[in-house]
Amino acid sequence: MKSTSIIALAAHAASVTAHTIFVQLESGGTTNGVGYGIRVPSYDGPITDVTSNDLACNGGPNPTTPSDKIIDVTAGSTVTAVWRHTLTSGPDDVMDASHLGPTLAYLKKVGDATSDSGIGSGWFKIFQDGYSNGVWGTSKVINNAGKQAIPIPSCIPDGQYLLRAEMIALHAASSAGGAQLYMECAQINIKGGKATASPSTYSIPGIYKATDPGLLINIYSMTSSSTYTIPGPNPFTCSASGGGTTAAPTTSQASSTTLITSTKTSTAVSTTTAPSSCAAAQWAQCGGSGYTGCTTCVSGSTCVKTNDYYSQCQ
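Above: the chain sequence. Below: its structure as tokens.
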């Protein structure tokens, strides 16, 4: 009995030390202090329910601390999200190396970054790093002392935004709900933008489904040439057609091997007619409460309703 308890405690300790928190944001050559302008939690656990409101800026099982600070960011610059296992950890304690998966970042334009919950529509992805030549995005961050470089688009309007940095661990993702998602929101004020683009936006929760091939996957069956589909829409780019058209999720290291097949359980919903230049790509969002992007899908795809907040081209 005693040995069993010791094993259980050891397993629990190993899982806890694997967690991580986005604790600092470096911008314009300035490294802000831990928790400055970021809603950091005291506990470093993941969010595993992709339908939860906690997916936006963390919270729930990981209560976050409000911040009254806003970090100035120059449009077109690159900021750095700093990840640590705890609020007091050093650069050699980021996240357990076994926690493999993609890294991502999203923006949401808000009226007041210190009070907006982040929940709901308005989000657009600006960065992603998945799997390439056998190397995961999380491994790059861990090996870079917890630093995740995030380019800020130069063509978006000035103003206050929430910057949502995210790391996803897939070591237990072979069953639905096994993916571990880590995220916090930094409160930023973007200046110097060209304000020429209006990105298509999405709802959080709503951007992911538990059965997405990038979240329901056995990563231990993969080879260096395997394909991985990064969850969510592709990052918005200033060069995108129409100033905000978002493409389908990308794959890394093309391969003929199919990693996973999910079954569609949602029902198709009608779409409205829109210019072909505004047709949403396969797997991109096409509807939902508060959504303002394309509502028709490219040829061969149908807009499928997942919930009141999210419909996707499938």
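Confidence is low (pLDDT under 50) at residues 1-16, 241-248, 253-277.
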